[in-house]
C-alpha cells in the first residue's frame, strides 16, 4: 500500500507537468491552433485512405459502374463506379449532372458505361451513358 501511495505522489506532478501550457504567450483555454504547430500541409497521410484529387474542369474521363439513384428534379444520376485513372479518382459513389435524354436511358440498378467531363469543385457532367 505504501508503494502505491508513493508512486501516485510521484506520478501526479509528472502528469501535471506534461499537461501544462509551456508556450511563451498565454492563450485562452480551448485554443486549437498556435503559431508553433506543425505545418499541416506537410503532414503524412495514411496509405490506406485514398484521397480524391480535384482535376481541372473540362478533363474527359470514362468509367463503368452501377446506377444507384436518378434525381430528375436536380438533373443528376448517381453512379457507384470503379477507379478512373484519367482524372485521378478512386472508386466511389458520386452524382453526375445529366441531361433528360441520359436520365431516360437508364434505371436504378443498371450496370453502365459512361463518359464525362469534370466540372468546377471536383464534380462531373455526363456526356454519354449506356447500359452494359
Q: Sum up the overall morphology in one term.
A: elongated
Using the coordinates above, name the CATH class of the domain at 60-131: Mainly Beta
Low-pLDDT residue spans: 44-53
Portion of residues in beta strands equals 25-35%
CATH superfamily of the domain at 60-131: Copper binding periplasmic protein CusF
Please report the number of helical segments. Answer: 2
CATH-defined fold name of the domain at 60-131:
OB fold (Dihydrolipoamide Acetyltransferase, E2P)
Query: Order of strands across the biggest sheet?
Result: 3-2-1-4-5
- Helices and strands: which structural class? alpha+beta
CATH architecture label of the domain at 60-131 = Beta Barrel
| Overall radius of gyration | 26 Å
Give the biggest beta sheet: 5 strands, antiparallel
Count of strand segments = 5
The succession of helices and strands, N to C, reads HEEEHEE
Q: Which secondary structure elements does this structure contain, and how are they paired or packed?
A:
Layout: H1 2-19, E1 60-71, E2 76-81, E3 92-97, H2 100-105, E4 111-118, E5 124-131
Antiparallel strand pairs: 1-2, 1-4, 2-3, 4-5
Protein described:
There is one protein chain. The protein is 18% helix and 30% strand. The protein starts with a helix and ends with a strand. The protein has helices spanning 2-19, 100-105, and strands spanning 60-71, 76-81, 92-97, 111-118, 124-131. Residues 44-53 have low confidence and may be disordered. Strand 4 (111-118) and strand 5 (124-131) form a beta hairpin. It is built from two helices and five strands. It has a domain at 60-131: OB fold (Dihydrolipoamide Acetyltransferase, E2P), CATH 2.40.50.320. The protein is elongated. The chain is an alpha+beta fold and 132 residues long.
Amino acid at each position: 500500500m505504501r508503494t502505491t501511495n508513493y508512486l501516485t505522489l510521484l506520478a501526479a506532478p509528472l502528469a501535471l507537468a506534461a499537461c501544462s501550457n509551456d508556450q511563451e504567450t498565454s492563450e485562452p483555454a480551448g485554443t486549437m491552433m498556435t503559431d508553433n504547430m506543425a505545418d499541416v500541409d506537410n503532414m503524412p497521410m495514411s496509405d490506406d485512405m485514398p484521397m480524391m484529387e480535384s482535376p481541372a474542369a473540362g478533363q474527359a474521363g470514362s468509367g463503368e459502374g452501377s446506377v444507384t439513384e436518378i434525381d430528375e428534379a436536380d438533373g443528376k444520376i448517381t453512379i457507384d463506379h470503379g477507379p478512373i485513372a484519367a482524372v485521378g479518382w478512386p472508386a466511389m459513389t458520386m452524382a453526375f449532372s445529366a441531361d433528360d435524354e441520359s436520365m431516360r436511358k437508364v434505371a436504378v440498378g443498371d450496370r453502365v458505361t459512361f463518359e464525362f467531363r469534370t466540372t468546377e469543385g471536383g464534380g462531373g457532367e455526363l456526356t454519354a451513358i449506356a447500359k452494359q
